Amino acid sequence: MSTSEPPPWPHCAHGADPAADPVGCRGIHVPRHTACLAHLADADRDAYLAGLTPGSDIDHRGTPFTERLLNALLNALRDPATGHARLGITRFESATFQASAAFRSATFQGNAAFESATFQSDAEFSLATFQLGAGFGSATFQGGAWFESATFQGGAWFGSATFQGGAWFGSATFQDFAWFESATFQASAAFRSATFQDFARFGSATFQGDARFESATFQGDARFESAVFERWVSLGPLVCAGRVSLSGAVFNGPATLSFAGRRLECRRTRWLSTAEVRLRYTSVDFAHAVFEYPLTIAAEADPFVLSTGEPLEERALAHAPDAAVRIASLRGVDAAHLVLADVDLSGCLFTGTVHLDQVRLEGDCSFDTVPPGTHWRRWRPARFTPRRTLAEEHHWRAQQPDAVPGWNVAVLGAGRAGPTQLAPVYRALRKAFEDGKNEPGAADFYYGEMEMRRHDRTTTSRAERGLLHAYWMLSGYGLRALRALGWLAAAMLITLVLLMGFGLPKEDPKQEATGTVPPGGGRVTFEIDKDDPQNPTGNRFSGKRFEKALNVTLNSVVFRSSGQDLTTAGTYIEMTSRLVEPTLLALAVLAVRGRIKR
Predict the structure, then answer these.
(1) What are the Cα distances from residue 567, in Å, to 422, 505, 563?
(2) Does residue 163 have a pLDDT over 90?
(3) Which ranges in 223-338 belong to alpha helices (H)?
(4) What integer is the mean pLDDT of 137-165?
(5) Average pLDDT over residues 172-192
(6) What share of the chain is helix, strand, coil (3-state, %, to 5)?
(7) Within 10 Å of residue 412's Cβ, how many Cβ atoms?
(8) pLDDT, greater one: 383 or 120
(9) N or C, which terminus of the chain has less Cβ within 10 Å?
(10) Residue 200 belongs to what H/E stretch?
(11) 3-state DSSP call for residue 162?
C-alpha cells in the first residue's frame, strides 16, 4: 500500500497535512468514534477499554501502538482465570508497534491478522544482547495467523508458540533474530519469500502440516536442530549466507530440500521417508544420519528456478569461490539407500560408513588426488602415479616421518584412521564403482586398497607385505601398464645380452651320421649325432648372434620355444625368460584392460 494513498478502511487522519502528509494517521476508527485508539480522547479510550472482555473481537488496523497503549489493551482482554490475554478475531494489519509488543502467553481464539504490521525494537532489551520487537512466546493461535509482509525491526520471539491453524509469514522481514524454538505448527507453516537478516532458530519445533520456505533468504544461520517434520516438507529453494543446521531433526514424511548456502549440517538427522537434497555452494556434514528410504544428495549446476519461473537470487553468496557441493562427512551413515550426484568428495570422511559398497555415485563425483610431480624423500626421488584418493589417506600420509609435500594434513575429524581402517573403505568404494559398471573408476580404489594393505603392519603379515611390494613394483598392482612394459623391456634386454654373451654357442653344432655297410650288401644302419654346443669365444656381440638372441627372446615373451641350440647357461636363461616375460606381458595387458573396460 502506498503511503500517499489512504487505506481501504475509515481512518483517523490525525496529523494530516495537505502538503507533507495528506493521509495522516492510518488507524481505523474505534467503533462509534472518528479517531483511532491511539488518538482517541482519554475518557473515550477508557470507556472503550472498559467495555472489552476476554475473547472480544478487536480491529485496530493501521493504529500506532506505544508499549503503554498495547499493555492497556491487553489488560482489558486479560482472562482472570489464567492471567493472560484472550483475544477473539484480531486485526492488526498495517499497525505499528513502537516498542516491545508483549503478546506473551496470549490466546488468539479467532484469526489473528498482522499483515504488513511493523514491530519496532525495544532499546531497553539490548542489555541482553538482542533487541526485542515482538514477543509472542508461548502464545496460542487457535485460528489462522497472518504475518505476511510484516516487518520485525527487533527480535521476533515465538518460542513455544502454538499455531493450531495455518501460519503465514510470506514476505515477512526479520531484521533481528527470529526465535521459533519449540514452536508447534499444527497446520501449514508458510515462510515463502521471507527474509531473515540475522539468525533464525526453529530448534525443537514441530511441523505437523506442510512446511514451505520457498525463496526465503537467511543472511545468518538457519537452525532447525531437533525439529520434527510430521508431513511433507519443502525447505526451499532458499538462500542461506550462513549455516543451515538440521542436526537431530526428524523427517517423518517426504522431504525436498533445495539450498544455496555455505554449510548444511545433518548430524544424527533421521529420514523416515524418501528425500531429495539439492544444493549449491554448500559443504555438507551427514555424520551419523539415518536413512530408512532412498535419499539423494545432488549438486545443481544452475541457479534454482522458483515456481514463478524466475531464478533464485543468490547475491548473498556472491563471494563464494564456486557453486560446488562438498560432502564433509558420511561417518556412521548406512549408505545402502544413499545416492550422490555431481558432488565433491575430496574432503569427505568415509571411515565408519556402513554398507558403503551399496552407495550410488552418479554423474561427476570427484575425489582428491595424489600430489603431482616428483618429490625427494630423503635421498631418493618419489613420484606418485595419478589416482583418486580419500581425505583420510591424505591425513595419514601427511603425518608420516618421510611425508612428501602435497599431502593434506588439514582434514578436520580424520582422527587416527590408518591403513587398517582405510583398506575396507577403498574395497567398498571399489565395489560400488564395479556395481555401477565403471571399471576404470574402480581401478583407482583397488589401487588404494592394495596400498593400504601394503602399509598395514597390523593385519597384514610380513610375507604378504613382501608379495604386495613386489606386485606394486612390477606393475602397480596390475594397473600400471607402462610400469609392467618397462620391466618387460628391461627383462628382454637382459635376456638378449645374456644370450649373446653366454647362451648362444660359438657355432651351431653340426650333425654327423655314422654307420656300417654289410660286406654282402643289405640294410645299412646310421646313427645321427650332434656335437655338444661349445661355449662362445671371441666376438660375442655380432649382428648374427644378435638376430639369433632376439629370436629366442621374442619367442620367450609368448611362451614359445625358438628351437635354437643353446649352451647350458643359455638353456637356463631361456627357461627363466619364458617364466618372467609372459607374466610381465600379462600384467601389462591386465592393466590396459582394467583402464578401458566399461
Answers:
(1) 52, 6, 13
(2) yes
(3) none
(4) 95
(5) 95
(6) 25, 25, 50
(7) 12
(8) 120
(9) C
(10) strand 200-201
(11) strand
> Which residues pair with residue 102 across a beta bridge?
135
Nearest to 256 by CA among 282, 229, 283, 281: 229
% of the chain residues with pLDDT over 70: 90
Instruction: Give DSSP secondary structure letters for 46-99.
Output: HHHHHT--TT--EE-TT-EE-HHHHHHHHHHTB-TTTSSBEESSEE-TT-EE-S
- Residue 427 in contact with residue 442, Cβ under 8 Å? no
pTM value is 0.82
Q: Work out the widest C-alpha separation in the chain, in whole angstroms.
A: 167
Cβ contact 502:536 at 8 Å: yes
Return the H-helix or E-strand segment holding 426. helix 419-435
CB neighbours of residue 401 within 10 Å: 5
> Using an 8 Å Cβ cutoff, are 337 and 403 in contact?
no
Scan for cell 479467532, then name that residue: 110
Closest listed residue to residue 514, CA positions, set 524, 500, 528: 528
Helices marked H in 172-274: none
Phi and psi at 457, nearest 5°, equal -95, 5
The Cα–Cα gap between 101 and 92 comes to: 12
